[in-house]
Amino acid sequence: MMDVQDRISKAIDGGSPDRVPIFVPGFDSRFLESFDAARGGRATANSCIVNGQDITPLVHMGVDLCEVRGPRHVKADTGLPSLEDGGLRVDMYGRVFKRRISGDGEHLVYQGPYLRAKDALASWDRVKPREVEAGWHDRAYKDAVEAVDKHAICPVFRACDGLYSTLEEAIGVENMASLLHDDPGAVDAHLERIYRVVASDVDALLEARIAFVLVSDGISVENRPRITPDLVFTHLRPLYKKLVDRIHAAGGKAFFRSAGDVLNVMDTLVAAGFDAIHVTNPDPTYLEEFLVSWGDKACAMGNFDVVSMLSQGTPVQVQKRARELVSISKSHGSRYIFGTNAILDGTAKLENVQAMIRSVKRIL
């Protein structure tokens, strides 16, 4: 049987793994409770902890690849500064509200967008790299090696979340839209600051000899982009490429994930050099379009829907859809890692998850 890391690497590079690898990003506390209940309580034997994150249920179910946290101490300090007028509030979208007291109730009345002056924006610097704590690199490497060698599961470590999404959350959607139109140079300057934080996180992972590094960014949501493809290419591609080049220079693989549709920016992600890209849209035709157009350049991951299949489906339906997705990938001779489009939540039925994994493992 092939080593799990070798299996994943061959799938990413377009080689011939012994079977299609299986990726599940993770699970929430409600799924963990149902998993423990089905096993008669929490089992401490053969537990798998990576950087403080328990991925034991995925190990027991036979998952090949999952997402885990990167350095917990590297953090982007974001958030809008408060206005001088104590009666005013700014939300994450850059909207200003004024507090109004009426009887016993308090109401927020919209005042308009909060567009800060250029000099204030120029001095904004709310993200700074932090030092890696002593001994973290050795612990992370030891956890990763143990996960692969002892538990046959390979963690992909998530670097500090977001370039675009961090900035948008910090200065607000309306401020971002205004800057992109009126002062794109300021956007690039802010993104460069955020990049330095993300790069320090990536460097910490690479120093820990981590093989698989995930870069995530909120450039899309569900079936629509949050930023147009031309702006992703102009403002984000150069920074993505620098991150990918760092990872490749250390011999690693670079993964990308966004919360929604990525087909409209696939050319940019491929140009940046990402090795594997997570597909969250659950439509099989979406996966096929990815494989037909970019399957020779990047590895697709995911596409299996947690809600309609694992939460609402039956084991028979789950097995049928799993075989369909693998068949699509094989018909195009393309790079593919089977996987879910999201983490397993409390509504995901354990018998469906197990049926999904068993079905894929039977396909050679």
Describe the structure.
With 364 residues, the protein is α/β, with parallel strands linked by helices. The chain has one domain (4-79, 115-361): Alpha-Beta Barrel (TIM Barrel). It is 45% helix and 20% strand. It contains 14 helices and 14 strands. The protein has helices at residues 4-13, 29-38, 56-61, 118-122, 136-151, 164-171, 173-182, 184-207, 229-249, 266-272, 284-294, 306-311, 315-331, 350-361; strands at 22-23, 49-50, 53-54, 65-69, 88-90, 95-102, 105-113, 154-158, 212-222, 224-225, 253-260, 276-279, 299-304, 336-340. Strands 1, 4, 8, 9, 10, 11, 12, 13 and 14 form a 9-stranded mixed beta sheet that branches. A 3-stranded antiparallel beta sheet has the order 5-6-7, with no helix packed on it. Strand 6 and strand 7 form a beta hairpin. The longest helix has 24 residues, at 184-207. The two termini are 12 Å apart. The model has no long low-confidence stretch (mean pLDDT 88).
